[in-house]
Structures are given as C-alpha cells and as structure tokens.
Amino acid sequence: MKRFLSLLLLLAMLITLCSCSVFTKQSPSETEPEELTATPLLYSITTADGATLYLLGSIHATDDRAYPLPDYIMDAYAESDYLSVECDILAFETDYTAQAQMVKMFLCETGKTTADYLGQELYEDAKAFLSERGDYNQIYDMYTPAFWLSLIENALLEETDLDTDDGIDLYFLEDAHKNNKEIREVESAMFQFEMLTGFSDELNRWLIEDYIKNAAEGIEATNALYEHWLRGDEAEFAAFIQDDADTSELTPEQLALYEEYNTAMLVDRNIGMADKAEEYLAGGGTGFFVVGAAHIVGEGALVDLLTQRGYTVNRIN
User: Fold this and answer.
1) What was the pLDDT predicted at 12?
2) What is the pTM of this model?
C-alpha cells in the first residue's frame, strides 16, 4: 500500500481539528502585503443565471509559507456572500452536547477494551507507539480503534513540518465568525464522526498497523502533499493523489479494505459535496466553498463532477 493513508493525516483529521484552539493568526481582512509564497488551486463555478461558487482546496495543516494568501484567493473570499466549509469546527468547540455525543460514539462496548478490538499484539504495538511519543493515557483503553487511529494520526502529524493551528479552513472560519459572514456546512462534524466510527474493525486494524509500520513514509508523504498544495500545479497535484492511491501491491483482502476506505472518505463524499455545490448555485449569489484539497482535482473530484454536470468551471490564478 504505497502512500494513500498519508492523505488522512491532512484531509480527514476531525478529532485533531476539534481539539484546536481558536486561531491567533492574523485575520484575512488585516493581512499586510508581503511577497507571496503560495499559489493554491482556486476555481470558479458559474451558472447561466450568474451564480458563482469559488472552489478552494483546503489543507488542514500548514506552515508560515501559506500566509498571506494570494490576492486572487482573498478577492474571491471578499466578494462572496457566504463561506461554505466541510464543518464548522469553531461552532463544534462550544457545542458541549455534541461533544458529549461524540465521546459516546468512540467508547468501547460495555465490558470491552481497545485490546479486544485490535488483538493483544497490535494493541501493544499501538500503545508502545503512543507511549514513545508521550501520547498514551490509560483512559484511552476505554475507546475504540477509531479513536486510537486518530491519536496515531495526531502523533504522526506532530512529526511533520506542519501545524493544525494554521489550517486553511480554520483561517477562513475564524474570519467569518469575527465578521459575521454567513457560514454553511457542506457536511457536519457529526457526519464526519459517524463516518470515522463506521469503519469496520478489520479496516481500523489495517490502518493502525500500516501507520505504525510506515510512519516515516507517511510523514514524508504528508509534507510532500503540502508542497504540492503550495505550488498549485493542477496536473502535478492530481498525479500525486493518484500515485498515493496506487493499489497494485495490495492483496485481495487489503484491496477490499482499501475500497471500503476510499469509498467512504472520497468517492461518496465527493458526490455529496458536488450535490451541495449544486444546491448553493441554484440558490444564486456568490459563495466561497472550502473543502479538503483531495476533493478538488482528479477523476471523480469536484472539478470533474461539476464539469460533467454542465457547469462552467474555470481555473483562477
């Protein structure tokens, strides 16, 4: 399994994101002109009636080179009537009822511990992996492999050059909350938690084992993904994601698990996001649509799906 699991580090780390504090980075409306170091992909989706949706691929963890964002992105955001994101993490941080529901979703069944799901050998390996990084707590034994998977993702992300406090989606969310810009959720935090807790035990075991065995490769690939995002080369970015999804070395059993993962994480969500984009376009006005970068370009991604559905799609640079 080459590098596809590294995408989860940046593109689907909801527990990490929900634990982030509110941004302290300078808001979009206050940035001072500086030499640009990033040229991320941005698209406009338009209808014959004049509705426009700007489509930006987000990276959930960045470094200082991402900011300030270039004028073509900030101008599109300023022009937009509303911000649309996968889920409003800042709102979730103050929704204690939803947080309590989320915790229950990750608890083991009565009478079971993590080891009962993972098997004793993999549990010990995962425990050692977290302990070596100072990230293990005995209370975690009450939680399912989905929670442990997120803990391991977090630990790996901490070893990259990136910071989740500087994620692109959070950057715009902070500004929208501060300036009372309308915020629309493409999915929701609970939708994403339900997806992550819905993976089979076999898939969770495979993911955890792969993360532990291939930690260095995952870290390297995550950093590389960010470099591709910074450069904003459409063909290069799409090719990297496709290479990340190479399944040629998988056994039939692993391939079935990969299909379970890929269908839930990308295929089904891409379709749902395209449906939501169409809904917004039908409502008129101008929107700024920010979702994980892996959902933007490539076969079956949003640019492809919306083009197939007859919308005018243009790259902005």
Assistant:
1) 33
2) 0.87
The enclosing H or E element of 58 equals: strand 52-58
3 state DSSP class of 85: strand
Return the closest-CA partner of residue 45 out of 311, 273, 305.
Answer: 311
pLDDT confidence of residue 246: 66
- CB contact at 8 A, 70 and 39: yes
SS3 content of the chain, % helix, strand, coil (to 5): 55, 10, 30
**Cα separation of 151 and 156, whole Å?**
9
CB-CB contact of 54 with 285 (8 Å): no
Q: At 52, give phi and psi (nearest 5°).
A: -135, 140
**pLDDT category, 27, cuts 50, 70, 90?**
very low
In this predicted structure, which of 151-160, 178-187, 299-308 has the lowest mean pLDDT?
A: 151-160
Nearest CA among 175, 193, 256 for reference residue 12 = 193
Per-residue three-class SS string for 226-282? HHHHHHCCHHHHHHHHHHHCCCCCCCHHHHHHHHHHHHHHHHHHHHHHHHHHHHHHH
CB atoms within 10 A of CB 240: 21
Phi, psi of 26 (to 5 degrees): -55, 135
Average pLDDT for residues 223-235, to the nearest whole number?
Answer: 93
**Across-strand partners of 82?**
182, 287
- Domain extents in the chain: 6-31+41-77+91-103+162-316
Q: H/E element holding 312? A: strand 312-316
What pLDDT is attached to residue 1? 39
